[in-house]
TrEMBL record:
Pathway: Amino-acid biosynthesis; L-cysteine biosynthesis; L-cysteine from L-homocysteine and L-serine: step 1/2. It holds the Pfam family PALP. It is an enzyme of class 4 (lyase). InterPro entries: Cys_Synth/Cystath_Beta-Synth, TrpB-like_PALP, TrpB-like_PALP_sf. The keyword Transport does not apply. Its cofactor is pyridoxal 5'-phosphate. Keywords: Pyridoxal phosphate. It comes from Fusarium oligoseptatum. Residues 22-319 form the Tryptophan synthase beta chain-like PALP domain. Belongs to the cysteine synthase/cystathionine beta-synthase family. Coiled coil: none annotated. The lineage of its organism: Eukaryota, Fungi, Dikarya, Ascomycota, Pezizomycotina. GO terms for biological process: cysteine metabolic process; serine family amino acid metabolic process; sulfur compound biosynthetic process. It catalyses: L-homocysteine + L-serine = L,L-cystathionine + H2O. This is cystathionine beta-synthase.
């Protein structure tokens, strides 16, 4: 077979990039196929897969925007220290961009945030200070107040302040919202997103409603948080702790416009993790727990707004499973937090065909595996010796595991 010689030009990918920062934004919009059908949803459900961003979350957009606008204003310069109180994802975004632009980073975050986030931050060279989970946001021990204190005592230190920085929602208004408008061919009916700082849902609502004021903005807020409006939604289970990371809060951030959201829904840990696990198992999307919360809000909104066939509902998937391998993706963690089994039997979501049976079977297999592993004795097979001799050992101990030594 004659083959054309490979030239340097031919071997260079057409979509090669000159800087990793260019991998922030322009994330894919992916149609869900199995899960909406199983849930009895007639409208088209698309997910904005923000875990395709460079640092793995939608917060990369915010971090980049805050840094670049601060640079333009002459507020920061390479070599300075950037400090940020965060649940982790904004910190990762800042630390990544700091590496590329020449800044130092200090991240303050509550102790409950995942080990994976801390590990990534350390790998990026960030200094990390963990704070008590039960510290009120305005107490000296909180990650918010600690960041302010550090800024006051360290030279050339700056808090970019995602909770009050208008560049947070502006990043989504100018990029994420416009991508969705274009990707849906101007046919988006509703947008669904969780709220932490509130920048995502605020920016998306502003950006999309400029194109079509009838687009509905749906907010997901975990039980125990006070971000949802009206305030009466938050009275039950007020300040109850929640395990889903990245959404919810005990104060209303300055960047959150609660009134631009057409309807808020309170979500629980159990339904959030259940739907996140179903997104993984049925759609092959390796999402984080807050994606499940957004899906729970979407499910409720479809009924309340009577979204039908032909409507397009976009759900934001803020980050991926990478940050939670030791948490909701791990059955042992779910058991330790009284969230197992996640079979959905106590939730209002219809199962997929065979889902409950499959989950039950998998649980039985796990139990059987544990029993076998605890009972088995690994017998060594040491060479030399004939194959016949080795076979006799295997036959005589058929219920054991073997390893070659």
């Amino acid at each position: 077979m004659n083959m054309s010689p490979i030239t340097p030009e031919a071997s260079t990918p057409a979509n090669s990039i000159s800087n990793a920062i260019d991998l922030i934004g322009e994330t894919p919009l992916i149609r869900l196929n199995k899960l909406p059908k199983a849930l009895g949803i007639k409208c088209e459900v698309l997910v904005k897969a923000e875990f395709f961003n460079l640092g793995g979350s939608t917060k990369d957009r915010v971090a980049l925007r805050m840094i670049e606008e601060a640079e333009k204003a002459g507020k920061i310069k390479p070599g300075d220290t950037l400090i940020e109180p965060t649940s982790g994802n904004t910190g990762i975004g800042l630390a990544l961009i700091a590496v590329l632009k020449g800044y130092k980073t200090i991240i303050t975050l509550p102790s409950k945030m995942s080990l994976e986030k801390v590990t990534i931050l350390r790998a990026l060279g960030a200094k990390i200070i963990r704070t008590p989970d039960d510290a009120a946001w305005d107490s000296p021990e909180s990650h918010h107040q600690l960041a302010l204190w550090l800024q006051s005592v360290l030279p050339n230190a700056h808090i970019l302040g995602q909770f009050g920085n208008p560049e947070n929602p502006q990043a989504h208004e100018e990029t994420t919202a416009q991508e969705i408008w274009r990707q849906t061919k101007r046919q988006v009916t509703a947008i669904v997103a969780g709220a932490g700082t509130g920048g995502t849902i605020t920016g998306l609502a502003r950006g999309l409603k400029k194109h079509n004021k009838n687009i509905k903005a749906i907010g997901a807020d975990p039980r125990g948080s006070i971000l949802a409006a009206p305030d009466s939604l938050n009275k039950e289970h007020l300040h109850e702790p929640h395990q889903v990371e990245g959404i919810g809060g005990e104060f209303v951030p300055g960047v959150l416009d609660r009134n631009i959201v057409d309807k808020w829904y309170k979500t629980t840990d159990r339904e959030s993790f259940y739907l996140a696990r179903r997104l993984i198992a049925e759609e092959g999307l390796l999402v984080g727990g807050s994606s499940g919360a957004a899906m729970a809000a979407m499910f409720k909104a479809v009924k309340d707004f009577d979204f039908k066939e032909g409507d397009k509902v976009v759900v934001v998937m803020p980050d991926g499973i990478r940050n939670y391998l030791s948490k909701f993706a791990n059955d042992d963690w779910l058991k330790a937090n009284n969230l197992f089994p996640l079979d959905g039997r106590d939730l209002p979501f219809p199962p997929s065909s065979g889902t409950e049976n499959t989950m039950s079977t998998m649980n039985e297999i796990d139990d059987l595996s544990s029993q076998l592993l605890s009972a088995q004795l690994a017998l060594p097979i040491r060479p030399p010796g004939s194959c016949r001799e080795k076979t006799k050992v295997v036959d005589d101990h058929a219920h054991h595991d073997f390893h070659i030594v």
